[in-house]
From TrEMBL:
<keyword id="KW-1003">Cell membrane</keyword>
<feature type="transmembrane region" description="Helical">
    <location>
        <begin position="124"/>
        <end position="144"/>
    </location>
</feature>
<feature type="transmembrane region" description="Helical">
    <location>
        <begin position="217"/>
        <end position="236"/>
    </location>
</feature>
<comment type="function">
    <text>Catalyzes the transfer of the diacylglyceryl group from phosphatidylglycerol to the sulfhydryl group of the N-terminal cysteine of a prolipoprotein, the first step in the formation of mature lipoproteins.</text>
</comment>
<dbReference type="GO" id="GO:0042158">
    <property type="term" value="P:lipoprotein biosynthetic process"/>
</dbReference>
<keyword id="KW-0812">Transmembrane</keyword>
<keyword id="KW-0808">Transferase</keyword>
<comment type="pathway">
    <text>Protein modification; lipoprotein biosynthesis (diacylglyceryl transfer).</text>
</comment>
<feature type="region of interest" description="Disordered">
    <location>
        <begin position="274"/>
        <end position="308"/>
    </location>
</feature>
<feature type="transmembrane region" description="Helical">
    <location>
        <begin position="183"/>
        <end position="205"/>
    </location>
</feature>
<protein>
    <recommendedName>
        <fullName>Phosphatidylglycerol--prolipoprotein diacylglyceryl transferase</fullName>
        <ecNumber>2.5.1.145</ecNumber>
    </recommendedName>
</protein>
<keyword id="KW-0472">Membrane</keyword>
<keyword id="KW-0449">Lipoprotein</keyword>
<dbReference type="InterPro" id="IPR001640">
    <property type="entry name" value="Lgt"/>
</dbReference>
<keyword id="KW-1133">Transmembrane helix</keyword>
<feature type="transmembrane region" description="Helical">
    <location>
        <begin position="248"/>
        <end position="266"/>
    </location>
</feature>
<dbReference type="GO" id="GO:0008961">
    <property type="term" value="F:phosphatidylglycerol-prolipoprotein diacylglyceryl transferase activity"/>
</dbReference>
């Protein structure tokens, strides 16, 4: 029975994993995979509208995903050193990504490196790919947060709000010294809502203004950095402290938002005109969006369609 009629109940621990023959399938991993699939489909559709050949996104994602996952895990581990390195610790837990603990800021670093490599190999302009990915990334992050809910690992300080999250006292992340039945801020839900609103905001701004040249990515960085800094401030399991006693992820969020602002300003100054048609690789072919027109008209047409 729920503690409050509107409270969010704890998921059954049995939801965290299930057996498929000899294999143990972790729900957290399935949520991450579902988010990746959603991001690929959304990004592919947005790239097609920019004149990029279908499924060119796969050429880039094959670099983005592995490097993003590796960097996400190691970022998490090295901002939670005491959780993994102590006398008698099982060092293999450093690699146990199925138990949760994959930092989005690490994935952004690794994913950006992978995207740069993938775009170079595919002959696709990096900023074109980054802008197409921006809202898709927020959708993917929202889906991935369902895995945190199942693992009972991403929640905020105790709250008396009716939509508080129930956490089982037996859950590994349940804080010491608090009574059973304590409700917590459902950070996973707050971030899901924030991310989905952010994805919609980027799309609406693209339709209203001429962006391109990485400015959609800049809006993503600003939006996510601001939202994440606020959520980290009430998180009950913050990252390890950094200067001034402020959790490392709050500092990282501030830096990310500032990078977004700088990127938007710099790209606006450097590229006051609309971004031209994407540079296309071997899998792509130039696309005329308005039938039989001259090359210059085709470029203008592509530009006009760039943010639709």
């Amino acid at each position: 029975m729920s503690i409050h009629p509107a409270s969010i109940p704890s998921p059954d621990p049995a939801w965290a994993s299930f057996q498929l023959g000899p294999l143990t399938i972790h729900t957290y991993a399935l949520c991450i995979i579902a988010g990746i699939i959603a991001a690929v489909l959304i990004t592919d559709r947005r790239l097609r509208r920019r004149g990029v050949a279908p499924w060119t996104v796969i050429d880039v994602v094959l670099w983005v995903v592995p490097l993003g996952i590796i960097a996400a895990r190691f970022y998490h581990v090295f901002t939670h050193v005491s959780d993994y390195f102590y006398p008698g610790a099982n060092l293999w837990n450093v690699f146990a990504i199925w138990d949760g603990g994959n930092a989005i800021y690490g994935s952004l670093i690794g994913g950006a490196i992978g995207a740069y490599i993938g775009c170079r190999r595919a002959g696709l302009r990096f900023w074109t790919f980054a802008d197409a990915l921006a809202p898709a990334l927020l959708v993917a992050q929202a889906i991935g947060r369902l895995g945190n809910y199942v693992n009972q690992e991403l929640f905020g300080n105790p709250t008396t709000l009716p939509w508080g999250l129930e956490i089982l006292p037996s859950a590994p992340m349940f804080p010491d010294g608090l009574p059973a039945g304590t409700l917590f801020h459902p950070l996973f839900l707050y971030e899901m809502i924030w991310n989905l609103i952010g994805a919609a905001v980027i799309v609406l701004l693209e339709r209203r203004f001429t962006l391109g040249w990485g400015r959609s990515l800049a809006i993503y960085l600003i939006w996510y950095g601001i939202g994440r800094s606020g959520l980290e401030a009430i998180r009950i399991d913050p990252s390890s402290d950094a200067p001034l006693g402020i959790p490392a992820n709050i500092w990282a969020s501030i830096v990310v938002a500032l990078i977004g602002v700088a990127l938007f300003v710099i790209q606006t100054i450097r590229h006051p005109t609309p971004e031209p048609s994407p540079s296309l690789g071997s899998r792509s072919a130039p696309v005329s969006l308005r039938g039989d027109v001259s090359p210059s008209q085709s470029i203008d047409s592509d530009t006009a369609q760039h943010l639709r």
